[in-house]
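Input record (one chain):
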Amino acid sequence: MQDAREIFEARLLIEPYLAGNAAARIGVTDVERLHVLAQQMADITHRPSTPESTERWFSANDEFHAIVTAAAGNARLDQSLKSMKETPLIKWTFDAYSDADRSRSASQHFEIVRALEQRNAACAEAITRCHILAAQAAVLDRSATEDPAS
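The corresponding structure, as predicted from the sequence alone:
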């Protein structure tokens, strides 16, 4: 769980900043793709969770966040963030989500897209920060339930 805490801490420092910078730089094609990915994730949240749906959500989520952070134009921070994100943790995050968590996450993806479309850096940063904090809470709450000593 210490690794998970550190990854979320790093994400909270880097990812909102990159999302804010992306607001000024992101292209129309990328925004359109983000809409598609957000819709795919929303559609997945309306069905029962299965290993296949988790994999589809993970893939869409990974591409979504990669587009946003790459659009910021800071390759070093983007690469640092990518090196810290671990596939099992992200998949475990989705598995830890309740139905309400999944719905909230899907809504937040649409809110991030809207902020980027509006070129609103502060909003993109704030929503991204809330998005990461919610994921962190879901994982840490799950961990506390499964292993109270962690």
